Inverse folding.
């Protein structure tokens, strides 16, 4: 069916765009949200490959467990000086 | 306060070229391979049940339709994964446990411990990592803020101990 | 006609490359964890796609095992991350140089 290919193209685009958002966004919290979007769209790919149980486990384990754990880590390791990106300039880290 | 999502670009040229090159290489291999159509699953089976049968090595219950009987059984792997998850739980507990002077400090202490060491000693020993001098200074300054902020773990008990010594009446 | 398997393989390769790119560029340990999750999900997509391609459930069972391992990895990784933050007040992976020779 042509609809399956349209759905595959759409969700492949969502998956890749949100994965690029994970690695390119500056705030770790935004990256975590983008990771949630990527995991959910990967679950849609699983459903399209007749793997409904794995898709449910993906949503429960990754989005419900792993992403919440990552969210906790983001909250617990919030930087005090979140004013500027200290990870774009590599020379600064030596003196901290 | 919410912040607008900003992209972080710059200083990504070499890893970007590397990742795109790897993707190009793998895509070249895939596109030169002829896969043919997918076989798919037969309509008469319930996939979730067959997953359970394969995972717990219930071979008698497996369906015989299509190539489902070629599904391997995974009981030993299931058990190994269970052991690995147990090990991960223990490792997470060991990593999250915080020791002060050789004794573990729980987040919500049920009883006061009279033999707690003094605060000046604990601050050094908690953050001791054997690093260089520069990191040592960072960690000591950090430990002050640490004991000031998380009051549930170390701050409360130590403050009380410093204040009223060994009365122990309010415990 | 469903989507052919090579597009799923391409998708998983692109996802893997993005995860590799994230590991190579970021210095925040949290982003390392997220990139590793992306790469594990790329492997899962491959497993599921080839399970459907062969009409065989081995790939799906193995994808479930991979997800359990990923959960264990995230638990251990976050424990290490919190210890890192407690000791160094930062989650930058280039700050801890104690074990560097």
């Amino acid at each position: 069916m042509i609809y399956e290919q349209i759905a595959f193209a759409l969700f492949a685009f969502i998956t890749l765009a949100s994965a690029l958002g994970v690695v390119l966004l500056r705030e770790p919290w935004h990256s975590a949200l983008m990771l949630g979007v990527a995991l959910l769209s990967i679950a849609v790919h699983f459903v399209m490959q007749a793997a409904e149980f794995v898709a449910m486990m993906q949503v429960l384990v990754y989005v419900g467990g792993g992403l919440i754990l990552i969210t906790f880590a983001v909250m617990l390791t919030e930087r005090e000086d979140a004013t500027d990106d200290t990870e774009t300039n590599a020379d600064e880290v030596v003196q901290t | 306060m919410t912040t607008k999502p900003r992209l972080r670009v710059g200083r990504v040229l070499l890893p970007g070229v590397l990742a795109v090159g790897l993707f190009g290489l793998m895509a070249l291999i895939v596109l030169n391979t002829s896969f043919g159509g997918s076989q798919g699953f037969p309509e008469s089976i319930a996939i979730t049940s067959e997953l359970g049968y394969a995972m717990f090595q219930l071979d008698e219950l497996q369906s015989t339709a299509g190539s489902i009987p070629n599904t391997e059984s995974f009981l030993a792997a299931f058990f190994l994964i269970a052991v690995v998850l147990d090990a991960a739980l223990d490792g997470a507990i060991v990593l999250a446990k915080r020791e002060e002077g050789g004794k573990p400090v729980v987040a919500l202490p049920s009883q006061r411990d009279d033999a707690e060491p003094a605060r000046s000693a604990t601050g050094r020993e908690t953050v001791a990592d054997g690093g260089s001098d520069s990191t040592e200074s960072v960690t000591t300054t950090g430990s002050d803020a640490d004991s000031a902020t998380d009051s549930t773990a170390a701050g409360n008990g130590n403050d009380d101990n410093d204040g009223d010594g060994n009365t122990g009446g309010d415990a | 006609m469903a989507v052919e398997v090579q597009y799923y393989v391409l998708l998983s390769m692109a996802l893997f490359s993005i995860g590799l790119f994230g590991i190579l560029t970021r210095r925040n340990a949290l982003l390392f964890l997220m990139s590793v999750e992306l790469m594990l999900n790329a492997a899962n997509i491959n497993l599921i796609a080839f399970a459907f391609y062969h009409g065989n459930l081995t790939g799906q069972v193995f994808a479930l095992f991979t997800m359990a391992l990923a959960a264990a990895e995230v638990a251990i990784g976050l424990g290490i991350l919190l210890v890192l933050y407690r000791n160094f007040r930062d989650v930058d992976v280039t700050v801890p140089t104690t074990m560097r020779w």
Q: What stands out?
A: Chain C has three helices and no strands. The CA atoms of residues 16 and 39 of chain C lie 5 Å apart.
